[in-house]
């Protein structure tokens, strides 16, 4: 793209083929971001912003993300599809109709927040490079298969349901519980059936964060905060400094 918009106006392909462009040729690019674009190139382009309803639907983004996880979790791909297709679309529609947002979001942002959070939770189940693993072990496969539904519900709450106010969160919580009761009632019947394996280092960090200096809950309760705002004191008026060589006001000139 950088070579097209410079002064030479030549399209350089990956095959090392160079195609000169005529002055009468117009091109339209659909780019993901501008990370590798030169500032001068951006200044020469005309930006076209599309409505979110006319862009790629969330189902296409879901299938694309699931395909990116296929290599690591191929045995659970169907479980991915079933859970996300059941919950994602209905939750997005509910948020758009019933949950006010202080900062408006688009469906693409909420979907990416959901996928990023899932990927962060999958780090425990990725292959161990120190053990020369190319794929997750069978134990990891079994563990993630047992808790995958719970992880998806957790990330839906903390990504899709995190942008609204308190009333919206309560409404979204009730709506999600109804969806779970309708589609996956086993998650509500026995919510403690799944145990997530946590290594010792993570558990140590968690305990230090909860019980050490990082825990501010008790300190916050001990603070004696005033219920009414304290009125501000009136600022003392400051007289401007006299100019150099001049006398201050009301001063007498010695004779």
From TrEMBL:
<feature type="region of interest" description="Disordered">
    <location>
        <begin position="199"/>
        <end position="255"/>
    </location>
</feature>
<protein>
    <submittedName>
        <fullName>Putative dynein heavy chain</fullName>
    </submittedName>
</protein>
<dbReference type="InterPro" id="IPR026983">
    <property type="entry name" value="DHC"/>
</dbReference>
<feature type="domain" description="Dynein heavy chain AAA 5 extension">
    <location>
        <begin position="82"/>
        <end position="201"/>
    </location>
</feature>
<dbReference type="GO" id="GO:0007018">
    <property type="term" value="P:microtubule-based movement"/>
</dbReference>
<feature type="compositionally biased region" description="Acidic residues">
    <location>
        <begin position="199"/>
        <end position="215"/>
    </location>
</feature>
<dbReference type="InterPro" id="IPR041466">
    <property type="entry name" value="Dynein_AAA5_ext"/>
</dbReference>
<dbReference type="GO" id="GO:0030286">
    <property type="term" value="C:dynein complex"/>
</dbReference>
<dbReference type="InterPro" id="IPR027417">
    <property type="entry name" value="P-loop_NTPase"/>
</dbReference>
<dbReference type="GO" id="GO:0045505">
    <property type="term" value="F:dynein intermediate chain binding"/>
</dbReference>
<dbReference type="GO" id="GO:0051959">
    <property type="term" value="F:dynein light intermediate chain binding"/>
</dbReference>
<dbReference type="Pfam" id="PF17852">
    <property type="entry name" value="Dynein_AAA_lid"/>
</dbReference>
């Amino acid at each position: 793209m950088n070579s097209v918009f410079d002064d030479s106006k030549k399209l350089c392909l990956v095959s090392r083929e160079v195609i000169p462009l005529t002055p009468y040729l117009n091109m339209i690019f659909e780019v993901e971001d501008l990370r590798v674009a030169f500032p001068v190139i951006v200044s020469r382009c005309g930006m076209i912003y599309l409505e979110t309803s006319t862009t790629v639907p969330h189902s296409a983004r879901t299938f694309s993300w699931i395909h990116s996880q296929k290599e690591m979790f191929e045995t659970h791909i169907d479980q991915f599809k079933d859970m996300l297709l059941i919950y994602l679309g209905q939750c997005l529609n509910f948020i758009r109709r019933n949950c006010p947002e202080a900062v408006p979001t688009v469906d693409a942002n909420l979907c990416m927040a959901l996928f990023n959070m899932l990927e962060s939770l999958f780090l425990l189940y990725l292959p161990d490079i120190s053990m020369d693993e190319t794929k997750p072990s069978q134990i990891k496969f079994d563990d993630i298969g047992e808790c995958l539904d719970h992880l998806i519900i957790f990330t839906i709450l903390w990504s899709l349901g995190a942008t609204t106010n308190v009333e919206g969160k309560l409404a979204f919580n009730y709506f999600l519980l109804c969806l779970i009761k309708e589609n996956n009632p086993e998650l509500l019947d026995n919510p403690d059936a799944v145990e997530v394996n946590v290594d010792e280092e993570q558990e140590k960090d968690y305990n230090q964060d909860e019980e050490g200096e990082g825990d501010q809950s008790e300190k916050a309760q001990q603070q004696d905060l005033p219920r009414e705002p304290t009125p501000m004191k009136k600022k003392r008026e400051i007289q401007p400094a006299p100019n150099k060589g001049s006398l201050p006001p009301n001063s007498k000139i010695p004779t």
